[in-house]
Write a structure and sequence with these properties.
single chain, about 325 residues, mainly alpha, 2 domains, transmembrane, membrane, transmembrane helix
Length: about 325
């Protein structure tokens, strides 16, 4: 299956290269179409390495190559979360070809990761450990990630309730949203004083604390028939991995960009704001939120991964 994906992904890159459709985007503009060759290379490597894994087994060298190609696919999948969010609220993506590339690369990450771990099967009778809290330092990091989102949520909520911040009013925010193709649901929520990104931040915070507290490993009472059952590991790990892989680099790089602008090394365009200073202020608030939450989510995800690994082995005939 992984070899088939690699072949299909390479063919996708070849087609886009031939017709000149860029699969990667820079800051506000598509990257050169020549970078599409990277997709061809990643797909071809995935096909060759996975075919070798089938023929010769997942040995140490083959496993290292699989994880390397998996990491390259993860880089190509960057932006998938943003595509999903914009599509959820009726906004069009910047490029359907780039969005398809993000989705295909994310599928490749799952397949390549599963192939690389195919030799690490849990022993027969292995059981999931009892629900547990993350270490104190990880929970402290979760607190920091939650606090990092507070200024961002306050800013967006202030706008939604009709306030003016950074020289921009709610009317201007709604006008920009309409111009960017926001759905009626998005605009309706704004008119009710509910910013959609604040709701997503609340869901993200719920996910973060579910990763570090015991209740994130067992279905709660309100799930009725699932009450008391163990939560499948992939259910919180899948969105957590996507979120961490997207928000952490986006926020860290964005924070670095804001620092360079603040020191005068780079200039910032005002965009939808009235002045570069206003754009920089909003940029700092947003990037600190994304960086703080993204890095914290990565830390919490690793902790959850380690704490929920099946361990032990049931011994038959033991007294």
């Amino acid at each position: 299956m992984t070899a088939f994906w690699g072949t299909a992904y390479a063919a996708f890159g070849v087609v886009c290269t031939v017709i000149g459709t860029p699969l990667f985007h820079g800051v506000g503009a598509p990257a050169p179409a020549g970078l599409d060759y990277a997709v061809v290379v990643v797909g071809a490597l995935a096909a060759l390495v996975s075919a070798g894994a089938v023929r010769y087994g997942v040995r140490t060298g083959v496993r290292a190559l699989l994880w390397t190609v998996c990491g390259l696919s993860g880089i190509a999948a960057f932006g998938l979360l943003m595509d999903v969010i914009t599509l959820m609220f009726g906004q069009g993506v910047d490029s359907w070809a780039a969005a398809a590339n993000h989705a295909l690369a994310a599928v490749g990450v799952c397949l390549l990761g599963a192939t690389a771990r195919s030799g690490h099967r849990p022993p027969t009778g292995a059981r999931a450990p009892a629900p547990s809290c993350a270490p104190a330092r990880v929970q402290l990091a979760a607190c920091a990630g939650t606090v990092a989102f507070l200024p961002y949520c306050a800013m967006k909520s202030f706008w939604a309730f009709g306030g003016t911040f950074a020289g921009t009013s709610i009317e201007e925010v709604l006008t920009t949203s309409r111009r960017n193709g926001a759905s009626e649901m998005w605009l309706t929520l704004e008119s009710w004083g509910l910013d959609a990104t604040v709701l997503l931040a609340a869901l993200g915070t719920f996910l973060l604390w579910g990763l570090v507290r015991p209740w994130g490993q067992v279905f709660p009472r309100w799930t009725l028939f699932l009450h008391g059952r163990r939560v499948p590991r992939w259910l919180p790990l899948a969105p957590a991995l996507i979120g961490a892989a997207t928000l952490a680099p986006y926020g860290v790089l964005g924070t670095g960009y804001c620092a360079l602008v603040s020191t005068g090394v780079l200039a910032i365009r005002p965009g939808d704001f009235h002045s570069p200073q206003s754009a920089l202020l909003v940029g700092w608030i947003g990037m600190i939120a994304f960086a703080g939450y993204g890095v914290t989510l990565a830390v919490a995800t690793r902790s959850y991964w380690l704490r929920t690994r099946p361990t032990g082995q049931v011994r038959t005939g033991a007294r």
